[in-house]
Write a structure and sequence with these properties.
This protein is an alpha+beta fold and 255 residues long. The chain folds into two domains: 41 residues, no CATH class; 145 residues, Roll (Pnp Oxidase, Chain A), CATH 2.30.110.10. 29% of the residues lie in helices and 27% in strands. Strands 1, 2, 3, 4, 5, 6, 7, 8, 9 and 10 form a ten-stranded antiparallel beta sheet that branches.
Amino acid sequence: MWLGKPFRACVPPGLLRCPCLGQAGACTHLAGGPGADREADDVTAGPPDWKTTMSLADCEIPTGDPLALFGQWYAQACESEPSDANAMTLATATPDGKPSARMVLLKGHDHRGLVFYTNAQSRKGAELFANPNAALLFHWKSLRRQIRIEGPLNEVTEEEADAYFHSRPFVSQAGSAASDQSRVLDDRATYLARVEEISVACHGAGEVPRPPHWTGFRLVPDRIEFWLDRPNRLHERRLFSRLDDGGWGSAMLYP
């Protein structure tokens, strides 16, 4: 019921899509049944004051420079997320369109793009060289925000890769050098023995030489979408697209 009326009577016929609506129009998502979630209580507030009460008419994602806005949201996430605010999903694909995804860590961002590092002989490395286009996704539950970023990739310079590799803890350097990432490992002891061997060999130098196949990539954004959670799943989305002159256009999207 919504303000004394059956839910079905309050919704235009073309918008009834919930699979749990039976002949009587009893949607458990709205009635507090098994399908209920946090939106249920919000929805029952109903008209006439729901828009003004929830400030849903106000757009909270600004226009302007999306890279600057990314920096603001990322800084806020670093303050609010309990761990790894720099964690992001990296989606790649083979040249024939077979996708794969995994979590990696953002290690730098500026006006040129977003940087992460990896073993180039891994599955993702092979896909990035074969098809140098990718998508990133940040999801910060503490802020109820998401950012989707798409674009081509460039390999970072050797100087950048060296600087980051040697900024890592010594054992992390040894672990990366010892790993045949994404390939079959017969026993974990084999890997740990490699790490120990490299650690002993490089202990005197205080650092491990960066393997030539361990490198970084910079994703150069041509699409950036900001997503903001709003009550009742009336979410806010704004897409920024790179223009031919290097600037940005933007448009709001239906949630």
